[in-house]
Each structure stands twice: as structure tokens, then as C-alpha cells.
């Protein structure tokens, strides 16, 4: 098994274990605004995904990710299967050259794009998109603009996702079963966004463990505000100020 493949398998194992531990919590969240099946569906799906990943023979990262995605699609009921699993199948192709900062950014962007398309959801709809969007944007900016170490970029992404989960509480659901409640959905934390955060937290923990470093204490704030196209940004701070 390649190092990248082994790392992804380890991450899947960690996610499966954490999702099982959070099963009741996720169920309670879903009980308030959904079918009360999110915790059980996710726990079952990730357990099967972890088994499938471990059974692979010397896989690379792309193969593990695709296998996990297909298993989630098959085992996770409701909309969560296609959202979490189907999006992963598509995004896995970005890892064909292994896991690097560049491929990780491409993977994250593709995953978010597919989740948005499949769920027809955007920020503010009280869905997992509210956690994933700030996480992905923060990760990309941290890598491509702020030039921080990948582990710190991932830590910043987790912090951004935490804020995104908190953002789902005071807003009205506009997608999924929770949207049927109308204004009664206000005040409830979205279970899908919570699951997305759990997954990101475990990715960070496994990455830190495999790199033998402590999880950085950081936040999503960026030390720079990038231009729309960083490649065309002026190297002259004075010129930038004059353009403003």
C-alpha cells in the first residue's frame, strides 16, 4: 500500500470510529428537523466504508477514496448517500497523482462543487454546504495565497467549518426535509454540516498523527486579503494601495 493510500485508509477508519461515537448526537440533531436517521445511516455507511477500504490490496489514495464514496452511496440512506458518497467518487479523481497540497485543494474544490450541484444548495440554506464552503475556501487561500504549511491550512479549514456549523443554527432551512418546517427550523444545528465537521476534524487528527506534529492552534483568519487573481497581483504594496 502506498503511503498516501495508507493515510487515506487510516483517515477513513478514524472517521468511522468518530461517527459511531457521535451516532446518538447526530440522531438527536436530526430528530429536531428531519427523520432522526442521520446518525444511524452515517454510522452504518462509514463502518462499511472502513471495511471496504481495509480490504483493498495495495491501493493508492484515489482508489481508496473512490471505494469509500461508492460504499457510502450504497449504504447511507436518503440524500446523505449521494451527497457524501457520490461527491467523493467524483472528487477522488483529483488524487490520481497522490496527496499533495495542490491535489488536496483540487479535491476539496471538486467535492464542494459536486455537493452543491447534487443538493442544489448554497451558503445560507442550512445544509452541509454552510460548513464545507468556508472550510474549502479557507484551505485554498491558506495554501495558495498565505503559503502556510498544509497541516496549518487544514487546521484553519476545520476552524472555518466550526464557524459554518454555528452559522446553521440561527438561519432558516431552505433545502432538505428541514425546509418543510419553515421558520421552525431556526435554532437547530444542521446534522449534515455537523457530520462534515466531524470528518474534517478526523482528517486533521490523522494528518497530525502521521506527520508526528501537534494539531496547530489557529483560526480561519488570513494574514492577507488576496486579489481575485493572485497570479496578477502586484508585488508593490504601494501600487496596491494606490489601486485601492
Protein architecture, described:
- The chain has helices spanning 3-21, 23-33, 38-54, 61-75, 80-92, 101-119, 129-144, 150-168, 191-211, 237-243.
- The chain is an all-alpha fold.
- The chain has a single domain, classed as Serine Threonine Protein Phosphatase 5, Tetratricopeptide repeat (Alpha Horseshoe).
- It is globular, with a radius of gyration of 18 Å.
- Its EC number is 2.7.1.-.
- SSE pattern: HHHHHHHHHH
What is the name of the CATH superfamily?
Answer: DhaL domain
The beta-strand count equals 0
CATH architecture: Alpha Horseshoe
The largest β sheet comes out as: none
CATH T-level fold name = Serine Threonine Protein Phosphatase 5, Tetratricopeptide repeat
Basic shape: globular
- Class in CATH? Mainly Alpha
Helix content: 55-70%
Given the structure, what is the number of helices?
A: 10
Low-confidence stretches: 232-244
> Mean pLDDT, rounded to whole units?
90
For the record, give the distance between the C-alpha atoms at the N and C termini, rounded to a whole number: 51 Å
Strand content: under 5%
Which properties best describe this structure?
244 residues; Serine Threonine Protein Phosphatase 5, Tetratricopeptide repeat; 10 helices; globular; disordered C terminus
Short summary:
The chain is mainly alpha-helical.
Task: Map the helices and strands.
Elements: H1 3-21, H2 23-33, H3 38-54, H4 61-75, H5 80-92, H6 101-119, H7 129-144, H8 150-168, H9 191-211, H10 237-243
GO molecular function, one term: glycerone kinase activity
Protein name: Dihydroxyacetone kinase-like protein
Keywords: Kinase, Transferase
Amino acid at each position: 500500500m502506498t503511503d498516501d493510500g495508507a493515510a487515506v485508509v487510516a483517515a477513513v477508519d478514524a472517521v468511522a470510529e468518530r461517527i459511531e461515537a457521535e451516532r446518538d448526537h447526530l440522531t438527536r440533531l436530526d430528530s429536531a428537523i428531519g427523520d432522526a436517521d442521520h446518525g444511524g445511516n452515517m454510522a452504518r455507511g462509514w463502518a462499511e466504508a472502513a471495511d471496504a477500504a481495509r480490504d483493498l490490496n495495495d491501493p493508492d489514495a484515489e482508489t481508496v477514496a473512490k471505494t469509500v464514496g461508492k460504499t457510502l452511496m450504497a449504504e447511507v440512506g436518503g440524500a446523505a448517500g449521494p451527497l457524501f458518497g457520490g461527491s467523493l467518487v467524483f472528487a477522488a479523481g483529483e488524487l490520481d497523482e497522490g496527496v499533495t497540497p495542490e491535489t488536496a485543494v483540487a479535491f476539496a474544490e471538486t467535492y464542494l462543487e459536486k455537493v452543491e450541484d447534487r443538493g442544489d444548495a448554497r451558503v445560507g440554506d442550512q445544509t452541509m454546504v454552510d460548513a464545507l464552503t468556508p472550510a474549502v475556501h479557507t484551505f485554498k487561500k491558506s495554501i495558495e495565497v498565505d503559503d502556510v504549511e498544509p497541516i496549518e491550512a487544514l487546521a484553519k479549514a476545520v476552524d472555518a467549518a466550526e464557524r459554518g456549523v454555528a452559522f446553521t443554527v440561527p438561519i432558516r432551512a431552505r433545502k432538505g426535509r428541514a425546509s418543510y418546517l419553515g421558520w421552525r427550523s431556526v435554532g437547530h444545528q444542521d446534522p449534515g454540516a455537523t457530520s462534515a465537521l466531524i470528518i474534517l476534524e478526523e482528517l486533521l487528527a490523522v494528518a497530525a498523527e502521521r506527520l508526528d506534529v501537534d494539531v496547530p492552534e489557529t483560526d480561519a483568519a488570513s494574514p492577507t486579503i488576496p486579489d481575485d487573481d493572485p497570479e496578477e497581483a502586484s508585488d508593490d504594496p504601494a501600487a496596491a494601495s494606490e489601486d485601492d
